[in-house]
């Protein structure tokens, strides 16, 4: 049986960030990766994907962005190359092509069973991320067999899809981006919209991400949030690299918008009648954010240095959105589920889950010697951003080292 002080599971941005912190404090550790570095970014994303965050927000541990286009948006392949360079720079001890089968034990004596053998350790950092399993509803099984089903983990390009209409379920960032890509490929898209957010890509001449950072919206500690459980369920920001993408822009290119998909029954997709309310709520939240930015600009005396105050047209909703579709009769060939993800902790054999099967943790501390990283709003809103991993790793490394009795490096 192999022995180390700490096992890190996952060699993405979170795993690399924790590895750097532990190396700086002298903690012996190993990173277990089921594939290669940045495996999910490398193999489980669609081909055209560019990151939702501008390049200046995509720095990695010990490897900040130094390119010529800080406000650009890198393709996912560039991020993979950067992660490989980061791993080399920090000499991350990665054991690739190693799948974790089970984690058991307790503080000071955890055991990690892999398909390459057993590892004994004092502590475990689960940095395997939040996007492991697509949230596909159970009624997906009721779809007609002629309808092909996809998720953002296995969809790669429009050519994969049948030459027929496509139903996309979910108006998150992924849903909006893929709705546009597929509609522009010549396939008619119907987008089923549930709870969602709406933001402009740029506001008053500056990237919205910069304003979110400036007003402190990305760094509010999880301990200062009124309902952290609700906040952790908040949809992702609907941002793309080149322009503002929202339901209005999609409808302008021919995407049909319907309400939330409620159920599939007898070959029919049935939608709720709440579309107008959901869109009004998204518009309201956007305007509240813009008011917060305007207030911050005014309080800091920057009105003369930035663009003019802006507001955007309300989301357009048809007078009577479609409430049902007979998928086969109406010519649909595929359903793409962009309904979010959940992490995979099926190998964690410890009583650390609530009644709904959700991992319980306090800012990433699950129990003594057991930590999680990369989950929504782990310690702050930017926890799931590329550069947010470093801050979380620093905080959790302090806790981990204190438990081990290691003296922290100055």
Q: Please state roughly what percent of the residues sit in beta strands, choosing from under 5%, 5-15%, 15-25%, 25-35%, 35-45% or over 45%.
A: 15-25%
Q: Considering the protein shown, what is the CATH homologous superfamily of the largest domain?
A: FAD/NAD(P)-binding domain
| C-alpha end-to-end distance | 34 Å
Count of helical segments?
Answer: 9
Q: What gyration radius follows from the Cα positions, in whole Å?
A: 22 Å
Textual characterization of the structure:
- With 410 residues, the chain is α/β, with parallel strands linked by helices.
- The model has no long low-confidence stretch (mean pLDDT 93).
- The strands form 6 sheets. A 6-stranded mixed beta sheet has the order 4-3-2-8-22-21, with helices on one face.
- It contains 9 helices and 22 strands.
- The radius of gyration is 22 Å and the shape is globular.
- It folds into 2 domains: 2-132 and 343-404, FAD/NAD(P)-binding domain (3-Layer(bba) Sandwich), CATH 3.50.50; 135-337, 3-Layer(bba) Sandwich (FAD/NAD(P)-binding domain).
For this entry, give a set of tags.
FAD/NAD(P)-binding domain, globular, 5-stranded parallel sheet, 6-stranded mixed sheet, 2 domains, alpha/beta, 410 residues, 19% strand
What's the quick description here?
Helices cover 25% and strands 19% of the residues.
């Amino acid at each position: 049986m192999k022995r180390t002080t700490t096992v890190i599971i996952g060699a993405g941005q979170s795993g690399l960030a924790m590895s750097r912190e532990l190396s700086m404090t002298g903690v012996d550790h190993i990173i277990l990766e089921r594939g290669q570095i940045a495996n999910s970014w490398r193999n489980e994303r669609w081909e055209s994907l560019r990151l939702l965050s501008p390049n200046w927000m995509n720095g990695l541990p010990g490897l900040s962005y130094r390119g010529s286009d800080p406000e650009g948006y890198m393709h996912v392949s560039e991020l993979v190359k950067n992660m490989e360079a980061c791993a080399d720079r920090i000499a991350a001890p990665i054991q690739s092509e190693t799948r974790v089968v089970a984690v058991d034990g307790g503080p000071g004596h955890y055991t990690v069973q892999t398909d390459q053998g057993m590892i004994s350790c004092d502590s475990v950092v689960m940095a395997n991320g939040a996007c492991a399993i697509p949230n596909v509803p159970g009624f997906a099984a009721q779809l007609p067999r002629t309808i092909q089903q996809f998720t953002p983990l296995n969809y790669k390009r429009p050519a994969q899809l049948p030459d027929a209409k496509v139903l996309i379920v979910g108006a998150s960032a992924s849903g909006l981006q893929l709705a546009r890509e597929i509609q522009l490929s010549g396939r008619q898209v119907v987008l089923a919209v549930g709870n969602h957010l709406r933001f402009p890509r740029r506001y008053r001449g500056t990237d919205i991400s910069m304003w979110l950072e400036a007003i402190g919206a990305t760094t509010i500690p999880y301990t200062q949030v009124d309902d952290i459980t609700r906040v952790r369920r908040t949809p992702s920001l609907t941002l793309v690299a080149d322009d503002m993408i929202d339901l209005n822009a999609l409808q302008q290119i021919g995407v049909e918008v319907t309400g939330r998909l409620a159920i599939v029954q007898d070959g029919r997709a049935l939608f709720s009648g709440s579309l107008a309310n959901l869109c009004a709520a998204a518009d309201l939240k956007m305007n509240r954010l813009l008011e917060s930015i305007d207030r911050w600009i005014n309080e800091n005396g920057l009105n003369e240095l930035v663009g003019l105050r802006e507001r955007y047209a309300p989301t357009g909703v048809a007078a009577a959105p479609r409430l049902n579709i007979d998928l086969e009769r109406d010519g649909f060939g595929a359903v793409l589920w962009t309904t979010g993800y959940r992490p995979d902790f099926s190998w964690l054999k410890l009583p650390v889950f609530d009644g709904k099967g959700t991992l319980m943790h306090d800012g990433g501390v699950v129990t003594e010697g057991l930590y999680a990283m990369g989950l929504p709003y782990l310690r702050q809103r930017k926890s799931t951003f590329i550069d947010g991993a470093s801050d979380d790793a620093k905080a959790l490394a302090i806790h981990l080292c204190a438990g081990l009795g290691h003296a922290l490096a100055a």
